[in-house]
Amino acid sequence: MTETNKDHLKVLLVGYNGANNTGSEARLLAIIEDIRSLLGPEVQITIPTLNEENLSRYLAEDEHLHIAPIPSIFFFAIDKLVSQHDLVLLVEGSCYMDTWTSALLWAFIWTTRSAHRQKKPCVAYAVDAGELSRFNDWLVKREASKTDLIITRTKYAEERLKKIGVTAPMTSTADCAFNFQEEPEDQQFLGSIWPESEEEVVGLAVVDFSLWPVVIRPWGRKENVYKWPYYFSRSKDRLNARKKLIEGWRRISDHIIEDHGKNVALICMEELDQPLAEDILQKMKNKDKCRVISSRDYNASQMTSMLSNLDLLVTSRYHSAVLSLRSGVPQMAVAHDPRLSSIYHDLHLYDDYFLHNNHPNLWEVVEEKVDLLIANPDLQTDILEKGLQEQVRLCQKNQILLQEFLTKKWGSKIMNDCKLDVENIINIENSRLGNIRGDKYEE
């Protein structure tokens, strides 16, 4: 154990920051609160980003919080940032997976490699793992094993990393976003932006599966560029798949409006979802009963409040499932990667309410389950309540595990004179969730 000085301690948070992504934003803000509660309000925190302007929308810099723009080719910039900090946290949920792009994965394992080489403590903080290419499997096995501590947000992720041979100390908890707190003034947000909805809204959190993964190219079509040298995947087959996706969501949207008299919110948890949502809206018969609600326009607090006031959620996004759970919103998933399948297993929703996007009768089954859940809004109540309790309990372990790690690494003097107690934290969280829902759940 090495004692160190608490004054001016510097922490680097490496993740998918500045992408107008509600889930990443909620995670980041919750993690910043965790760090400050452990290390004090004067701890120096730095967040690297490819898009400083977007990140500045919801994160205000001050003398203790710093935004660090980095280039698309990030290796040297990350090395330099690691050298300037005392502690490195990997804070991106989709950390050990290449579903979206190998480039993100490489950024995270390069950070770990750099921290290991420079003898800086490195923790993966409530992250996920998924299927990887053979090369990335090998790379993660070699480099992620150099992490001082890996905390996964699902048991599946822990098992997956162990299966491919990662040897770093590891445990599983739950996603940090379960601890995210929206602002009190946002509690009636949905009604304020859409008064005519009368709170009778079904949310469809859509994702354009055809865009992924983003690939690395020296050049390509301008309309396909994400941020050079990263380009969205495009092909004739992918464009056809996108057309079918638009038609499927269009069909469900009009069905909900015409057969159930509900309004429909096309939810964009990331700004990149918005073009798909707008194309769905344009194909609908009942456009006047539908709105596109996007993270490009609204922050995590506002989006979380909106999710909490839905009658039903059909989601392709992990964090819409997570952030709506606090209010017991009935939900089902149409997914293409292991993140939603993992949380649905944990919530015991998988067998009845999870559909893969390549299901042969996808939209017929979605329609049947939408009808079932609208007709029986209390059908999932008990299972969602029980799942929420367990996820909140596991989420609170993140901070406790980090406290234990830092105490072992640097000694108790580095901590913010706090003794985290699981039971006390859970009681506080119970009270907070009770305020959101108007009741309290029993421990």
Secondary-structure blueprint of this entry?
Elements (H helix, E strand, L loop, with lengths): L9 E5 L7 H18 L4 E6 L2 H5 L8 E5 L5 H9 L3 E4 L11 H16 L4 E6 L6 H11 L4 E4 L2 H9 L6 E3 L16 H5 L7 E5 L9 E2 L8 E3 L2 E2 L4 H25 L2 E6 L5 H10 L6 E5 L5 H9 L3 E4 L2 H8 L5 E5 L2 H9 L3 H4 E3 L5 H14 L5 H30 L11 H16 L6
Parallel strand pairs: 1-2, 1-4, 2-3, 4-5, 5-6, 6-7, 8-12, 8-14, 12-13, 14-15, 15-16
Antiparallel strand pairs: 9-11, 10-11
Q: How many E-type strands?
A: 16
Number of domains: 2
What best-fitting shape do the alpha-carbon axes yield? globular
Low-confidence stretches are: 418-422, 435-443
Percent of residues in helices comes to 40-55%
Account of the protein in words:
This protein has helices spanning 22-39, 52-56, 75-83, 102-117, 134-144, 155-163, 189-193, 236-260, 274-283, 300-308, 318-325, 338-346, 350-353, 362-375, 381-410, 422-437, and strands spanning 10-14, 44-49, 65-69, 87-90, 122-127, 149-152, 170-172, 201-205, 215-216, 225-227, 230-231, 263-268, 290-294, 312-315, 331-335, 354-356. It is an alpha/beta fold. It has 2 domains: 10-180 and 388-437, 3-Layer(aba) Sandwich (Rossmann fold); 184-379, 3-Layer(aba) Sandwich (Rossmann fold). The strands form 3 sheets. It has a 7-stranded parallel β-sheet, sandwiched between helices. Strands 13-12-8-14-15-16 form a 6-stranded parallel β-sheet, sandwiched between helices. Strands 9-11-10 form a 3-stranded antiparallel β-sheet, with no helix packed on it. The protein is globular, with a radius of gyration of 21 Å. The chain starts with 9 loop residues before the first strand and ends in a 6-residue tail after the last helix.
